[in-house]
């Protein structure tokens, strides 16, 4: 068995971070977050 995050936990995360909207963009003071998981442009691919 897989011991990681369950599907219901991923769905809950997506619901609370982006409202399940793939087009969600949030502008913060000095960064921007994109998509379902609100991936931050300052820390992505470091």
Task: Kindly list the characteristics that best describe this protein.
1 helix, Alpha-lactalbumin, Lysozyme, single chain
In words, what does this structure look like?
- This protein is an alpha+beta fold and 46 residues long.
- The chain has a single domain (7-40), classed as Orthogonal Bundle (Lysozyme), CATH 1.10.530.
- 26% of the residues lie in helices and 17% in strands.
- The chain contains 1 helix and 3 strands, in the order αβββ.
- A 3-stranded antiparallel β-sheet has the order 1-2-3, with no helix packed on it.
- The longest helix is centred in the N-terminal third of the chain and has 12 residues, at 7-18.
- The chain starts with 6 loop residues before the first helix and ends in a 6-residue tail after the last strand.
- 0% of the residues are buried.
- The model has no long low-confidence stretch (mean pLDDT 92).
Output mean pLDDT: 92
Number of domains: 1
Between the first and last Cα atoms, what is the distance in angstroms? 31 Å
CATH architecture: Orthogonal Bundle
Q: What structural class do you assign from the helix and strand content?
A: alpha+beta
**CATH topology description:** Lysozyme
Number of strands: 3
Order of strands in the sheet with most strands: 1-2-3
Beta-strand share of residues: 15-25%
Uncertain segments are none
CATH class: Mainly Alpha
Helix content: 25-40%
Element-level helix/strand string: HEEE
Number of helices: 1
* Shape by Cα distribution: flat
For the biggest sheet, the summary is: 3 strands, antiparallel
GO molecular function: lysozyme activity
Family: Belongs to the glycosyl hydrolase 22 family.
Pfam families: Lys
Keywords: Secreted
């Amino acid at each position: 068995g897989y011991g990681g995050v369950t599907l219901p936990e991923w769905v809950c995360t997506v619901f609370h971070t982006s409202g399940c909207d793939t087009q969600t963009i949030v502008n913060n003071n000095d960064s921007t977050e994109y998509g379902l998981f609100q991936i931050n442009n300052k820390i992505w691919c470091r």
